[in-house]
Amino acid sequence: MGRGKIEMKRIENSTSRQVTFCKRHVGLVKKARELSILCDAHVSLIVFSSSGRLFEYAGGRSMSEILQAYCDATHNEDRSRPIFHEAKDTTDFEAVRILSWLKKV
Question: What domain range is 78 assigned to?
Fold first, then answer.
Protein backbone atom coordinates (compact mmCIF):
# COMPACT_ATOMS: atom_id res chain seq x y z
CA MET A 1 0.00 0.00 0.00
CA GLY A 2 1.43 3.38 -1.02
CA ARG A 3 1.59 6.62 0.86
CA GLY A 4 -1.14 9.20 0.60
CA LYS A 5 -0.69 12.30 -1.51
CA ILE A 6 0.51 15.43 0.22
CA GLU A 7 -1.19 18.68 -0.65
CA MET A 8 1.37 21.04 -2.19
CA LYS A 9 1.14 24.07 0.03
CA ARG A 10 3.45 25.80 2.47
CA ILE A 11 3.84 24.02 5.81
CA GLU A 12 2.73 26.55 8.41
CA ASN A 13 4.44 25.00 11.47
CA SER A 14 8.08 26.15 11.32
CA THR A 15 9.45 23.06 13.08
CA SER A 16 7.61 20.70 10.74
CA ARG A 17 8.71 22.80 7.76
CA GLN A 18 12.37 22.58 8.83
CA VAL A 19 12.16 18.81 9.40
CA THR A 20 10.53 18.35 5.98
CA PHE A 21 13.18 20.54 4.34
CA CYS A 22 16.01 18.51 5.88
CA LYS A 23 14.53 15.18 4.82
CA ARG A 24 13.62 16.29 1.31
CA HIS A 25 16.95 18.05 0.84
CA VAL A 26 18.81 14.84 1.64
CA GLY A 27 16.59 12.92 -0.80
CA LEU A 28 17.10 15.51 -3.52
CA VAL A 29 20.89 15.39 -3.17
CA LYS A 30 20.74 11.59 -3.23
CA LYS A 31 18.75 11.66 -6.50
CA ALA A 32 21.17 14.18 -8.04
CA ARG A 33 24.13 11.98 -7.05
CA GLU A 34 22.45 8.86 -8.47
CA LEU A 35 21.72 10.64 -11.76
CA SER A 36 25.33 11.77 -11.98
CA ILE A 37 26.75 8.32 -11.30
CA LEU A 38 24.29 6.12 -13.19
CA CYS A 39 23.99 8.27 -16.30
CA ASP A 40 27.45 9.89 -16.31
CA ALA A 41 25.64 13.23 -16.21
CA HIS A 42 27.06 16.54 -15.07
CA VAL A 43 24.66 17.61 -12.34
CA SER A 44 24.61 20.71 -10.19
CA LEU A 45 22.13 21.41 -7.46
CA ILE A 46 21.81 24.71 -5.61
CA VAL A 47 19.31 25.06 -2.78
CA PHE A 48 18.78 27.96 -0.40
CA SER A 49 16.81 27.17 2.74
CA SER A 50 14.15 29.55 3.99
CA SER A 51 16.75 30.89 6.43
CA GLY A 52 19.11 31.63 3.53
CA ARG A 53 21.57 28.80 4.13
CA LEU A 54 23.23 27.51 0.96
CA PHE A 55 23.30 23.80 0.09
CA GLU A 56 25.02 22.70 -3.11
CA TYR A 57 26.03 19.55 -4.93
CA ALA A 58 28.07 19.08 -8.09
CA GLY A 59 28.59 15.70 -9.71
CA GLY A 60 30.67 14.83 -12.73
CA ARG A 61 32.47 18.19 -12.83
CA SER A 62 32.99 21.14 -10.53
CA MET A 63 30.13 23.54 -9.85
CA SER A 64 31.86 26.36 -11.72
CA GLU A 65 32.46 24.15 -14.78
CA ILE A 66 28.83 23.05 -14.85
CA LEU A 67 27.55 26.61 -14.42
CA GLN A 68 29.88 27.84 -17.16
CA ALA A 69 28.61 25.10 -19.48
CA TYR A 70 25.04 26.11 -18.58
CA CYS A 71 25.75 29.77 -19.37
CA ASP A 72 27.38 28.82 -22.67
CA ALA A 73 24.51 26.49 -23.60
CA THR A 74 21.74 28.95 -22.79
CA HIS A 75 23.54 31.81 -24.50
CA ASN A 76 23.77 29.83 -27.75
CA GLU A 77 20.45 28.03 -27.30
CA ASP A 78 18.08 27.53 -30.20
CA ARG A 79 15.03 29.55 -29.12
CA SER A 80 12.63 27.20 -30.91
CA ARG A 81 13.63 24.32 -28.64
CA PRO A 82 11.47 23.86 -25.52
CA ILE A 83 13.06 24.80 -22.21
CA PHE A 84 12.43 23.25 -18.82
CA HIS A 85 12.61 26.32 -16.62
CA GLU A 86 10.04 29.06 -16.50
CA ALA A 87 11.86 32.31 -15.83
CA LYS A 88 14.63 32.05 -18.39
CA ASP A 89 15.99 35.58 -18.04
CA THR A 90 16.05 35.36 -14.24
CA THR A 91 17.63 31.90 -14.37
CA ASP A 92 20.39 33.10 -16.70
CA PHE A 93 21.05 36.09 -14.47
CA GLU A 94 21.20 33.88 -11.38
CA ALA A 95 23.57 31.42 -13.08
CA VAL A 96 25.93 34.24 -14.08
CA ARG A 97 25.74 35.74 -10.58
CA ILE A 98 26.50 32.38 -8.95
CA LEU A 99 29.31 31.67 -11.40
CA SER A 100 30.96 35.03 -10.68
CA TRP A 101 30.56 34.38 -6.95
CA LEU A 102 32.19 30.95 -7.30
CA LYS A 103 35.14 32.44 -9.19
CA LYS A 104 35.77 34.75 -6.23
CA VAL A 105 35.83 31.79 -3.84
Answer: 61-105
